[in-house]
Amino acid sequence: MALEELKAQIALLVSEINNQPEDLHELYELIHQKLNEFRGLGQPLPADLVALEQRMLAEFPKKKPGKSGA
Known about the structure:
This protein is mostly helical. 67% of the residues lie in helices and 0% in strands.
């Protein structure tokens, strides 16, 4: 995937946060995936998106394997 296309997809996801706040967790997951694609390409990540990712990670921490809610 071209770098510019990846940037455009992330920008669209970020704008969706304002339009669909009820889907915040799902949007975070998608943004996280796209940022990982950036990392995979060896591209530097924009500081504002890294900060967003960190805030969302604090709000929606990843579940640890082997842990159950019951």
